[in-house]
Amino acid sequence: MTDIQxxxxxxxxxxxxxxxxxxxxxxxxxxxxxxxxxxxxLGVGSHAWENRLEDGLWTYPLDAVWxxxxxxxxxxxxxxxxxxxxxLETVGAIGISAMMHGxxxxxxxxxxxxxxxxxxxxxxxxxxxxxxxxxxxxxPLRWSIAHLRQAVRDREPHVSRLAAVxxxxxxxxxxxxxxxxxxxxDASGVFPIGAGTADYDEHLxxxxxxxxxxxxxxxxxxxxxxxxxxxxxxxLSAEGAxxxxxxxxxxxxxxxxxxxxxxxxxxxxxxxxxxxxxNVSAGTSIFAMVVLERPLAAQHHELDLxxxxxxxxxxxVHCNNGASELAAWxxxxxxxxxxxxxxLDDDAVFEVxxxxxxxxxxxxxxxxxxxxxxxxxxAGLTAGRPLFVRTPDSAFSLANVMRAQVYGVFGTLALxxxxxxxxxxxxxxxxxxGGVFRTAGVAQRFLAxxxxxxxxxxxxxxxxxxxxxxxxxxxxxxVAAKTAHTLGAYLDDVVFADAAAxxxxxxxxxxxxxxxxxxxxxxxxxxxxxxxSAL
Length: 535
What we know:
The chain is α/β, with parallel strands linked by helices and about 525 residues long. It has 17 helices and 20 strands.
């Protein structure tokens, strides 16, 4: 073994590691890192899953949560043993993160009252509009408080038994540790956070409780406690250890960092937690996070006001639809390759198609692609209909088709980012992460054109949020050891001190081409709306 291999095996053996597990929309990922060198990934594991549309609402069954968690962890443990020849029996700290928002409602006995309602649901429009007006703060449809208020407005039978509401990350964390808490970043997608507090806005809590006194318990009793990054969030219980690792190898007693949302872990994974920094996370959904220097001048329905895991204010442009439609097209071409007798794995198919997109016209040849599998509030759409549109004189080629599909991933995001531009928000750097950026220089280049700003992609881009929550677990360990104090300094001085990143500046022709595409995209939203009505 080399010295590096010996050091990695020793880190695993002694538990000088941290484990991050993130429940994404299509994959549950586990990532083990060296706590002393957080940029060093020691093992990974994953499990594929999909949401279901049941009774008109998007959901995941809770048994799929636990089966997926156990499979992802077992995959990680096998990878660690294969790489380092050491059984994974303990780690230095653990963190859980998940897709934000949604609604998990429980009674006093901890029984789930209705199926988990994910961020993807758009049935909460009346409640979101009511609360936005009441609070003078934009409350998006997917926020947990909008789901709760809508259930009360609709007089759903389960409301009379309601005792607790949480997010997916909060639910998993509570089952593993017994602590009902949320990291402040995840909590900021549940209910507005008070300025400078890292806690729910007390004034707005009072406003909410006054809406329907007696219908439900006081909001503070329903919602989890809020914790900032680095705080003590409990330890792995014996019951939690059995849930995570049914084979019985993992030992209880491991400390946890506060559970976080995927927006917060994306900020950590891209070192975008300081003012004038931002990041774009692309997966099933796509969103941009920009850390603010000052409050925004006005309320905007396109922007959420959330926080970093440390509690600093962030403007979020969240789009319900990200790279899923692009993946569907890649799957189509992958099947064609297999049927022709030259099968390619998924990554190879993406590589070929994305490289082809580089040869497309700067405006995608007049083609348009809408990736709307679900409703898209920023675009004014309550439901989704994926569309590919061309006119008779469009330049219909594979290169233009694929460029239009990648542009379509960034279309709604660009609409929201223009609102931030109008507010005069300044950015020093924008980082991107997510699987679509694994093919170097393609999606990154087109995102730079969409934002008209340089875009950086780091070496950890493809690991994404699972690595980000592992870093937050390492920060929790460092805070306990009194070797770290602030998250920003820890990321700069320890995690990213020697990190490499490729930076792509916007190309003038691409920028002009995307602007022309976006003009057509705006106009074509009428076609998308008609498809929602007609189909």
